[in-house]
Amino acid sequence: MKEEEKEEREEELTETTRHLPTDVGEEIKDAYLSYAMSVIIGRALPDVRDGLKPV
After folding, report:
1. What's the total number of domains in the chain?
2. What pTM did the predictor assign?
3. Which of 1, 17, 25, 33 would you call most buried, defined as having the most Cβ atoms within 10 angstroms of its Cβ?
């Protein structure tokens, strides 16, 4: 979904609605990118505390 479509859908929902319709593909892509970045930062980049040695 594009940003404009998301905003329109959110406006259509009532205040009592707690679930927003989302595109599963977009959610998976966002989650995967977040996970991949955390793995790269946590494992692949050398750290000063390790003497800049990859662990």
Report:
1. 1
2. 0.46
3. 1
